């Protein structure tokens, strides 16, 4: 690359936007905006004469970017582009694998976006939700992140994120069986809720409140009765789909010593 100074006249050029996720192109642009270069080696050589291994190292050494802010900038960009929560969680885990510093700080900054699809639709954000609801959404999200990290040979505990609580083998079987179906279950539940009557919406609200945000006097026993064909099974199935869609394990009540496989409890 050869750059010669313009001898006369002026020129106005358009500066294209290069996002942090563009990799080397992002660092090259940052350097070119501050000094001219004659070669690829010049790009990696800082004004003090040091030659760096990467364009990123050179840009950091010159103070053109903040070392600890790169992963945060990538996540902010992805959120602004309305990337799905599942893809955000994968990106977060990938950034951690690639050496992003302070994973806990990144989690605290962006957990609203990471948790969005696990939060009950009654609440717009984590801060709007009751404490128990918020904790359940965070737990489901951390479990999903832990699963991605495990594929990289890591875990939440290893990288400084809140550890995922242990589950009984039966509860884990339920979670494993329905994990690939969570998006379908949440979508299915949302469509069914649109068909609810006012009374059915009241039943759903009472049951979910008892599970997600029980008060001191809240009963956890609910009897749904009515004539045949009035939608009792429809309501119960919708509630079950909604809970399993947010990674909450359910277990059917059977006589002692009996166990029902998750596939039969669906």
UniProtKB/TrEMBL annotation:
InterPro entries linked: P-loop_NTPase (IPR027417)
Name this polypeptide is given: ATP-dependent DNA helicase
């Amino acid at each position: 690359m050869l750059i010669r100074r313009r001898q006369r006249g002026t020129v106005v050029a358009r500066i294209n936007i290069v996002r942090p996720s563009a990799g080397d192109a992002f660092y090259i642009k940052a350097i070119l905006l501050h000094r001219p270069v004659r070669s690829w080696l010049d790009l990696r050589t800082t004004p003090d004469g040091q030659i760096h291994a990467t364009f990123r190292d050179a840009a950091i050494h010159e103070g053109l970017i903040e070392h600890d802010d790169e992963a945060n900038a990538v996540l902010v960009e992805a959120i602004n582009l309305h990337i799905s929560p599942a893809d955000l969680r994968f990106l977060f885990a990938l950034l951690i694998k690639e050496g992003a510093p302070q994973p806990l700080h990144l989690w605290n900054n962006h957990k609203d976006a990471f948790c969005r699809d696990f939060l009950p639709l009654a609440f717009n954000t984590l801060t709007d939700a009751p404490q128990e609801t918020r904790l359940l959404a965070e737990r489901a999200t951390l479990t999903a992140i832990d699963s991605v990290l495990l594929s990289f040979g890591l875990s939440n505990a290893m990288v400084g994120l809140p550890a995922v609580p242990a589950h009984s083998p039966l509860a884990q079987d339920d979670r494993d069986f329905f994990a690939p179906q969570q998006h379908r279950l949440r979508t299915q539940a949302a469509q069914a809720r649109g068909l609810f009557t006012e009374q059915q919406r009241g039943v759903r609200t009472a049951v979910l409140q008892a599970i997600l945000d029980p008060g001191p006097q809240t009963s956890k026993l609910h009897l749904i009765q009515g004539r045949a064909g009035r939608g009792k099974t429809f309501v119960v199935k919708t509630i079950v789909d909604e809970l399993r869609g947010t990674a909450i394990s359910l277990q059917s009540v059977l006589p002692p010593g009996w166990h029902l496989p998750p596939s039969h409890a669906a």
